[in-house]
Amino acid sequence: MLSNEGIPCTLTNETFSSIYPIGFNSIGGINLVVPAEYADTARRLLDLTAQEDSPES
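^ that's the sequence the OP posted. Answer follows.
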C-alpha cells in the first residue's frame, strides 16, 4: 500500500522470521522502514488502514 502511494519502504528481519517463527515477535519482529520525510504520511496511511480493518464497535 505504501509503495502504491509513492512511499519508498522496506521490511527488515523478514528472513529471520521464516527461520525462527516461534517467539520471533518477542525479539523484535519485522520492522517497516521508510525515509524520514515520508514517516508522517506513512503513519497516517497505516492508521487509516488499521481503522478500516478493525471490527465495528
